[in-house]
Amino acid sequence: MYEELFRELGLSINEARVYEILLKSGEISVQTISNKSGVHRRNVYDSISKLIEKGLVSEVFIKSEKNFKATDPRRLLELLKEKQEKLNKVLPELQGKFHQDSEKEEAYFYRGIEGVKNYLQDILKTKETVYFIGAKAFWLDERLKHFLPQFQLKRKELGIKFMHLFDQEIKTRKPEILKITGKPYKFLPKKYSSQTAVDIFGPYVVTFVGAEIGKLQDEPLIFVMKSRKLADGYRKFFQFMWDNCD
């Protein structure tokens, strides 16, 4: 009746069967356990030994005969807590190994509007603040008008913060982007405007070439470098620019 549950809690098949019989039958001998559980006598001894180690079974001596009985089932909860505590101790190390592998350094590129959408999805997956250098409001590109509202909704749900360093021309040519992206934002001096934009988030450094104010290239090309160390360095560059811009 409870065998499957006991197995989910970490007991072997034989341990689960033996423990359930002991819960139902009280103090009984190995032979009786074997008869009622269908577990071979030799395997009953092995299972009882392991159940005793786990604190689920205890020995009882009656007239020089050794019997066994189940302990309070609440011990199962204690076992779960003990396992959780063991996991909690090593979890930071396991997460470190996971992130180390998942943030393997690499470089690649995205091409076309679908590539731009992939880059935006990367922002949502990373869930970290995004730093924009030389932002050009290319999200206003007509080809993104159906995708962008959904992206913005999800971005706000995830609490992803934006920090924009816009090209100076945004003030006069595409000021509507400021309401879409929201604060904080600043503007690069006009003499530093270019056809390049760089976005930094998580382990990513994403570079756009040939972007115009409010519009992407006909066939957008996005260069992606994935390296936490590189991204951290670019964030420092961004901070210097941010501190020296209006």
Counting copies of identical and different chains, the oligomeric state is single chain
What separation lies between the terminal Cα atoms? 71 Å
Give the count of structural domains.
Answer: 2
Inertia-based shape:
rod-shaped
CATH homologous superfamily name of the largest domain?
A: Endonuclease Chain A
Q: How is the CATH topology of the largest domain named?
A: Endonuclease, Chain A
What order do the SSEs take from the amino end to the carboxyl end, as H and E? Answer: HHHHEEHEHEHEHHEEEEH
Question: What's the pLDDT, averaged over the residues?
Answer: 91
Q: Give the helix/strand class.
A: alpha+beta
The CATH architecture of the largest domain comes to 2-Layer Sandwich
Number of strands: 9
Instruction: State the helical fraction.
Output: 40-55%
- Total of DSSP H or I helical runs spanning 4+ residues: 10
Q: Flag low-confidence runs.
A: none
Largest sheet: 7 strands, mixed
- Adjacency order of strands in the biggest sheet: 3-9-8-7-4-5-6
Rg of Cα set: 31 Å
CATH secondary-structure class of the largest domain: Alpha Beta
- Portion of residues in beta strands equals 15-25%
